[in-house]
Design a protein that fits this description.
globular, 18 strands, four-stranded antiparallel β-sheet, alpha+beta, 26% helix
């Protein structure tokens, strides 16, 4: 029996192979298009991640608002159990004052991460656990910080904290203290120098050097800068003084104790070189242009510092550079602008702007501070020679931007 070959069979097979090759090529092209669509700055995956971040941010804001409502209803002090155990196996508890409540957000509810609480106005604070001996400990070579805390350039230095005994009694009885989670921010009521919109005038002189308003400890607000140490002590003391709670401007002991807690619980943060996790012009570990916040861009050309004329709000432009034709860009950001600036749930301890402490020079004793403190009307760092500033600033990463820098 003879088998007959059908006409056109080879051609049909050839067409099938060509079609298959073309199909594969088309699929590869489509796959390339899909990958490009999924990735990149405007890709689906990138947008999905952005949407996830924004959703988490909105959820956290809602939880903070809920905690503020709970704080308003909390009329007495109570102990908050973190679910952790101490070295003796006892349950770790954090004292929650009347008028406050824990956020109970994951990552904000343990000693190892830093317990965050909120007052009824939405101000956030972080619990710093310590004994009185730990609080009173002065700087030494173990820390790698400067020694002789109360001696500087041959002068006598004091830490003029008001009601020192009350503070020490509180730490002894409660096992720690609370610190503002953010740098002191400008309240919304301060309309004459509050920059909450794009193109708002950058205010710096006498308007901000006042006791008229009460600072806030909130995310995304303008830092209260251009205020001298005297006014800073006054407004800090006015922030909270009810329900058995009193606020103060941070002193040297509280600052150093906070640094030691960070050293203990967050080994990713270097206190002697904080340029990798602070807002400094030479920080290259983050992309400033990815931040979306309120900010001001200052430039430095040659020996001239050009202060920003306006604030901007939104995606940050004018990111810090190493210099273009002798020009440097310095970014002053709102509070908590990046997660990179956070350690132990405290933002901007490194960089952004300098922080005052109660320390000052030429004091007769710790309890009798000098009355000849400077008034930084011009914002000139040199004018602070009789007081102590900590944390360094966005344009001044002295000694590699030390968080513990004095």
């Amino acid at each position: 029996m003879k088998l007959k070959h059908k006409k056109g069979s080879k051609l049909q097979k050839g067409i099938t192979l060509i079609a298959l090759v073309i199909t594969i090529i088309v699929l590869l092209i489509l796959a390339g298009v899909s990958i490009a669509t999924l990735t990149g700055d405007n890709g689906i995956l990138t947008k999905a991640q952005t949407a996830k971040t924004e959703t988490e941010k909105a959820s956290e804001e809602e939880q903070v608002q809920l905690a503020a409502m709970n704080a308003a209803m909390n009329t007495e002090k109570y102990d908050y159990e973190t679910g952790e155990k101490d070295e003796e196996g006892k349950s770790i508890k954090v004292p929650i004052p009347a008028g406050f409540a824990p956020t109970q957000i994951e990552g904000q509810n343990s000693i190892k991460d830093g317990v965050v609480v909120v007052d009824e106005n939405g101000n956030e604070f972080v619990w710093i656990p310590c004994t009185l001996d730990e609080f009173n400990k002065q700087r030494n070579t173990e820390d790698g910080w400067e020694t002789k805390q109360y001696k500087y350039n041959g002068g006598t230095w004091g830490d003029g904290q008001p009601n020192k005994k009350d503070i020490q009694d509180s730490i002894k009885n409660n096992g720690g203290f609370y610190i503002g989670r953010y740098e002191a921010g400008v309240p919304k009521e301060a309309t004459e120098f509050y920059a909450n919109s794009d193109g708002a005038e950058y205010k710096q002189q006498a308007e901000k050097n006042t006791d008229k308003y009460i600072p806030v400890s909130k995310k995304g607000v303008q830092v209260w800068n251009y205020i001298d140490q005297i006014h800073a002590k006054n407004v800090a003391g006015n922030m909270i003084k009810n329900n058995g709670v009193q606020s103060y401007l941070i002193d040297s002991h509280a600052w150093d104790t906070t640094c030691r807690i960070i050293k203990k619980y967050d080994d990713t943060k270097n206190l002697l070189d904080s340029t990798t996790w602070g807002n400094y012009y030479n920080n290259r570990t983050i992309k400033f242009e990815n931040l979306n916040t309120l900010y001001a861009v200052h430039t430095y050309e040659g020996t001239t510092l050009n202060t920003a004329k306006t604030y901007s709000k939104g995606q940050v432009t004018g990111a810090p550079k190493d210099g273009e034709g002798g020009k440097y860009y310095y970014l002053e950001l709102s509070t908590g602008a990046s997660e990179n600036f956070k350690s132990y749930n405290i933002y901007d301890l490194a960089g952004n702007v300098w922080e005052w402490t109660t320390e000052n020079g030429n004091a007769a004793s710790e309890d009798k501070p000098s009355e000849s403190m400077p008034n930084l009307q011009t914002g000139d760092i040199v004018g602070a020679k009789n007081c102590v500033i900590r944390g360094s600033a966005y344009a001044y990463p002295n000694n590699k931007g030390r968080s513990g820098f004095t």
